[in-house]
Structures are given as C-alpha cells and as structure tokens.
What does this fold into?
Amino acid sequence: MNNSVLWAIAAASFAAIFALDAPFPVIVAGAALIGYIGGHIAPARFGIGSGHGKNVLWPTGFAGAFDWPSASIALVAAMALFRFKRDVMQVIAACAGVGLVLKTLIG
It folds into this structure.
C-alpha cells in the first residue's frame, strides 16, 4: 500500500472486523466496491493496473477472451460463502486447489 487512502481502507477493515464484528465477506465486498469506484474516480490514488489480481476475468483486456474458469470459481466461492455458510479459509483453500489443477490441466 503506497498512499493514505489505501491505508485508511485497511484500517477501516480491521476496525469493522474487531470492533463491529462484521462478517469477513461483507468487509471484502465493501473494500472491493470502494476500490472499484475509487479506481474510476481517482485512479492515481488507488493504483489501478499496478496490483496483483488485475484483469482476472479478462486477462488480455476487454478486447480479449473472457476467462470462464475464473468466473466459475468465483461464482462457486460466493455460493459456498453466502448460501452454504462455509468457512472462509476452506473456500480460499478449495479455490486455490481448483485453480492450480485447472491451470495445470488447461494452461
């Protein structure tokens, strides 16, 4: 994190976890929404295009192909978290495993 805006988001996330006992998926979704909106309003403050995870669903940009395996993993992860109330660490581990297998098999 290279500026005060990103540090403020991180501090607010920790406060929400520990002081408000907010659910982790809600905090992640909120931070993602703030980052998405902030990245379009003030891209210099949010470091658009410099972080990991850039263009997960369109790895070669919007003109390129949509990454269906990544979208499928994300959809199943959201269902596991919100519909079936699975533990966050279990979902992360499962997604990492599936992603590794898919990357190995289909490149």
About this structure: The radius of gyration is 16 Å. The mean pLDDT is 85. The chain has two domains: 1-54, 55-107.
